[in-house]
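Example 430.
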Amino acid sequence: MTQTEKSDWYPMWKELGIDIEKHDQLLAVLPEVFKEIYIDSQKNRPEAIGFWDFVVGDIHGIRISEIKKAKEEGKKIIGTFCLYVPDEILFALDCIGIGLCGGTNFSNYASESLLPTNTCALIKSALGFGIGNICPYFAMADLLIGETTCDGKKKAWEVLKEYKPVYVMETPQCKTRLQARTLFIQELKDLIAKLEYLTGKKLTAEALKSSMENISKKRALISKVYESRKADSVPISGKDSLLVSQVAFYDDPDRQIEMLGKLVDELDQRIKQGIGVVEKGAKRILVSGTPMAIPNWKIHHIVETKNAVIVAEETCTGTRYFESQYEELKGETIDELLEIIADRYLGINCACFTPNDGRKEDIIRLAKEYKADGVILYTLNFCQPYEAEAISLDKELKKAGIPTLLITTDYSSEDNEQLNTRIEAFLEML
Ligand code: BJ8
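Predicted structure in complex with Double cubane cluster:
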């Protein structure tokens, strides 16, 4: 992928069955939004971030053409919607895994009549993109893998299966139980069997181990980007860091490793030279809650236009994506490696589990590590697991002496005024 290449992607989109009129409308809005949020309102960004600007600028172009080529060469394309579907297994079987969560209400028109009104924005958006034929990644997918996390998603898979082959992995509900681990390992084995059938390939321990090492390398580099945000002054904005995580869900892992390496080197240099994106002493915010898929930059944008900076996200597009790294990979057989994978994933504290006390501990630890002045508990409307946890976390964090602000919102801009006022008041009080 080169940053100077410009191509006409229309023939490819037509071949994929994309609704060109709607897609044009989408692509007419996205660059403007990106320019306003990322280019015009930020200064002193790291140079290496230019790669991520380019990726968003060509969001349905080069990467789609790469995937299309890989598909023509026999690779299978797998769409996923949750961290709990292990990328390392997909790539070990020579598949390409693509995160398909949606972050805009642009696509809701296509899913509204198929879902109850009280469905969260992320599900409405993701389904709308697929069903409305406006997402080439979805169009390209040979298989969608769902999971049994929240109720909204469980029912979404039943709708989606009318449009694409869907396979549902069962994720345990009480993940600390001994049998949860056994169940999850069995689910991983069933997933492997499903993918082996789809690809006609047999998983080997060597391929699995090498894929685990590769994905782990990518996660470790994202973790280093986050590590740099502990500095004062912060060398990269919350908006840019969020973009880095969002792109990691669908870009080629090897290219990510290369580009993240360059970014991390630059961030190290910036810290040594004292170069930051905000003044020293600017208010530092930790955001915790539901994932933020592209182009959901709403809260970050509001916070960071107020001389404050988001220093970390306790979300699945944040620390939950890369924390709990594999220690030294000791396993040699598939069974041993699957145990390591299961232990890593069952260490992720998503609100869909009960009990989920680990999340409170994570937030308190992260607030300390990133020297956050306050925490924004961010939830999408109608997301019961995260809304419920936000209420109890609010009390617990206050008890621990950490100021909090509870925000429940969606992808529209209708509440922007109100959020502006509330966030401003919160920052003033810190
Ligand atoms: S591991 S957070 S990616 S389930 S916002 S769809 S929970 S109603 S996205 Fe998630 Fe996996 Fe958990 Fe992470 Fe449901 Fe809530 Fe909507 Fe959500």
